[in-house]
Specification:
Elements: E1 11-15, H1 20-31, E2 35-40, H2 43-53, E3 56-59, H3 65-79, E4 84-87, H4 103-132, E5 134-139, H5 152-172, E6 176-183, H6 192-195, H7 199-204, H8 214-225, E7 236-239, H9 255-262
Parallel strand pairs: 1-2, 1-4, 2-3, 4-5, 5-6, 6-7
Helix pairs in contact: 1-8, 3-4, 4-5
The structure holds NADP nicotinamide-adenine-dinucleotide phosphate (NAP).
Length: about 270
């Protein structure tokens, strides 16, 4: 298919590209004609998705700088270019009150959610983008600009990622555009403990009447990564079904926060 967005033949790296939002982003990039390199920790999943997309993949954690170096090297060797980086992999641990946060888990959160995106952009910049240009999209969260129960580490690290996005946008212009997408609640494994069970109650409190699907977020990522957004940098695109404007829609309690208070994710 010919890309409507100028993504045909471009090369993209998507971290956490094996399921959820990252898988959908990788799939939409491939459908738009891009060459795609996916990463995640599970080797078999990386292999499976790379094969499905006709792309390549590398297994490892983004917390490991050597893994990020390998991703850049492999993408450059295989594709001869790196035009798009999507920093999508993240952790929502440590979950709970900040007074109980384990310092090692806190550091890991910042390593995965903030440092890894910076390191991957540094790698892509040095290897290709400094000379040839490119685009970066960081996946933040609608929750990054307000506080919430139990999600202090996650929210703080995502707020840092939001700031990093804007800082990099200024530093890397005009060659490289850097933007973020901030999803509301999306139907993925990471958020399953929030939306299941009782999805209808959640949906009723959202202005657009449903929780998000990975494709909702991926379409925004693809647009920002594409030439259609050529005059957009340092932006954060909320894709949240109206979550952030719900106060003007309904006077009820915010079901997501009620659930964050009373439920917990699995570790992983
Ligand atoms: N779902 C939501 O409601 C929601 C809302 C706001 C923001 N977000 C953001 O959206 C992004 C994607 O989340 P999702 O909901 O799609 O999650 P998901 O379904 O759990 O998928 C996460 C992906 O990242 C990979 N991954 C996790 N930790 C990794 C690590 N340390 N190194 C490399 N890969 C890793 C996972 O594979 P492996 O486990 O094999 O590594 C998987 O491919 C995240 O940045 C998240 O913060 C999600």
């Amino acid at each position: 298919m010919t890309s409507p967005y100028g993504l045909q033949g471009r090369a993209a790296i998507v971290t956490g590209g094996t399921r959820g939002i990252g898988r959908e982003v990788a799939g939409q990039l491939a459908s738009a004609g891009a060459l795609v390199c996916v990463t995640a920790r599970d080797t078999a999943e990386v292999r499976r998705v790379a094969a499905e997309l006709g792309g390549i993949g590398v297994a490892g954690t983004v917390a490991d700088p050597a893994h990020l170096d390998e991703v850049v090297r492999l993408a450059l060797d295989a594709f001869g270019r790196i035009d798009v980086v999507v920093n999508n992999a993240a952790t929502n641990q440590p979950y709970g009150p900040l007074m109980d946060a384990d310092p090692r888990a806190w550091r890991e959160a910042f390593l995965v959610n903030v440092e890894a995106p910076l390191r991957l952009v540094q790698g892509a910049w040095r290897a290709w983008m400094r000379e040839h240009g490119g685009t970066v999209v960081n996946i933040c969260t609608e929750g990054a600009d307000h506080v919430g129960p139990q999600v202090g580490a996650y929210g703080t690290s995502k707020a840092a990622l939001l700031h990093l996005t804007r800082q990099l946008a200024g530093e890397l212009a005009p060659r490289v555009r850097v933007n973020s997408v901030s999803p509301g609640l999306v139907r993925t494994e990471m958020a399953r403990f929030v939306w299941e069970p009782g999805e209808d109650d959640l949906a009723a409190g959202l202005p657009l009447g449903r929780i998000g699907e990975p494709a909702d977020v991926a379409r925004a990522v693809i647009w920002l990564a594409s030439d259609a957004a050529e005059w957009v940098t340092g932006a954060d695109l909320l894709v949240d079904g109206g979550t952030s404007v719900r106060a003007a829609y309904s006077s009820g309690t915010y079901a997501v926060h009620e659930r964050l208070r009373s439920r917990a994710p699995g570790t992983g």
